[in-house]
Amino acid sequence: MARGARPEGAVDEAGAARAVQQMFNSIAPRYDLLNHVLSANVDRLWWRRTARRFKEVLARRESEVLDICCGTGDMTLALAKLRPKGGRPLIAADFAHAMLSRGVEKFKAHGANVLAVEADALQLPVGDSSLDLIVSAFGFRNLNNYENGLREFHRVLKPGGQLGILDFSEPGGWTGKLYAVYFRRILPAIGRMVCGEAGPYNYLPASVGNFPPPAEMLALMRKVGFDEASWTPYTFGIAGLYAGVKRA
């Protein structure tokens, strides 16, 4: 099973982390535009659906919630809409400064009760057993070590705390074949035209191909200590939500 993301040229985990950080900082100015164009705005439905999956824990005022690898904050805002007034601030964290800065602008514009923190998902500035919910949308796949990421999430969640990881996958059948053509040929070309760089949008399909398939990812979640591990496919399996509960 793949251990973690490996951008082209990275020879170890530290190099992979630096490459991912630099890449997302470089594309931050056009990241939102490309996301919406390349997904035909379906990504908005995925964020809302993921947020609704955790509506019960989000509805509790005292819940401590973290959106890790939050990027420019779209998943954060979907979660924040389900938070009650007067509840604890939702924590949004990312280690790419330029991405997080754009997220902060969105949080202010929407009047969202969000605390933005620049932090590495593998070294969270959070105490043991302190969070009720962790969500990550399209960021977990970029960690340089998937098992270490899950272990860090497990560390900071309370017993019974919930985890949700929304990410891409490779669907099977004819859908998968058609999507592969789009994902590996058309998407990088559009990304290159819009942002002027080939690397980031060549990396995207490569990172999805490197990511563990659902059965392996669920096995890793159970190994680390998550019960009720499940995968719910979205839009023919192009994306999907991994969910689990920290074992008491």
Tally the helices.
Answer: 9
Largest sheet: 7 strands, mixed
Q: Care to count the β-strands?
A: 7
Q: What general form does the structure show?
A: globular
Relevant CATH superfamily: Vaccinia Virus protein VP39
Q: State the assembly state of the protein chains.
A: single chain
CATH architecture label name: 3-Layer(aba) Sandwich
**Overall average pLDDT:** 91
Strand content: 15-25%
Q: Into how many domains do the coordinates divide?
A: 1
Strand order of the largest sheet: 3-2-1-4-5-7-6
* Rg (C-alpha, Å): 17 Å
Kindly, what is the distance between the CA atoms of the first and last residues, rounded to a whole number of angstroms? 27 Å
Describe, in short, the structure shown.
This protein is an alpha/beta fold and 248 residues long. Helices cover 49% and strands 20% of the residues.
Please provide a written account of the structure:
- The structure is a single chain.
- With 248 residues, the protein is α/β, with parallel strands linked by helices.
- The protein has one domain (13-246): 3-Layer(aba) Sandwich (Rossmann fold), CATH 3.40.50.150.
- The chain is 49% helix and 20% strand.
- It contains nine helices and seven strands; from the N terminus they run H-H-H-E-H-E-H-E-E-H-E-H-H-H-E-E.
- It has helices at 13-39, 42-53, 55-58, 74-80, 97-110, 146-156, 173-195, 199-210, 214-224, and strands at 65-68, 90-94, 114-118, 131-137, 157-168, 226-234, 239-246.
- Helix 1 (13-39) packs across helix 5 (97-110), helix 1 crosses helix 7 and helix 7 runs antiparallel to helix 8 (199-210).
- The longest helix is centred in the N-terminal third of the chain and has 27 residues, at 13-39.
- The radius of gyration is 17 Å and the shape is globular.
- The model has no long low-confidence stretch (mean pLDDT 91).
